[in-house]
Amino acid sequence: MAATERITMTMRELDRYKVIQDVADGVLRPWRATKRLGLTTRQIRRLVGRLREHGPQGLVSGRRAMASANGELVTLYREIRRDILDLQKEPG
């Protein structure tokens, strides 16, 4: 028995998956998928390839696991500000 893997998708990714799956199954023509998803036919072909190669996981955004650069900048800003304030407090 194959192990099942849980995949978290947004509603938009789930809709995209259904349309791309229909294209891969031959139920939907690629040009119709472009109208539904607002993508080009080239992007549709790429997504069909990713679906065939990686399964539904291939359509999930890879950026989801990445940390926000903004959070790192805020932390850096606070550290620098704290250092500056500490330098100002030091006597002369």
Characterize the structure shown.
This protein is mostly helical and 92 residues long. The chain is built from four helices and no strands. Helix 1 runs antiparallel to helix 2. It is elongated, with a radius of gyration of 23 Å. The protein starts with 10 loop residues before the first helix and ends with a helix. It comes from Paraburkholderia tuberum. This is Helix-turn-helix domain-containing protein. Pfam families: HTH_29.
SSE layout:
Elements: H1 11-25, H2 30-37, H3 41-54, H4 69-89
Helix pairs in contact: 1-2, 1-3, 2-3
Distance between the termini: 73 Å
Uncertain segments are: none
H/E element string? HHHH
* Class by alpha and beta content: mainly alpha
Number of strands: 0
> How many domain regions?
1
The DSSP helix count reads 4
The largest β sheet comes out as:
none
The radius of gyration over CA amounts to 23 Å
Taken as a percent bin, the fraction of beta residues is: under 5%
Q: How much helicity do the residues have?
A: 55-70%
Mean pLDDT across all amino acids? 86
Task: Write down the overall geometry.
Answer: elongated
Protein name: Helix-turn-helix domain-containing protein
Organism: Paraburkholderia tuberum
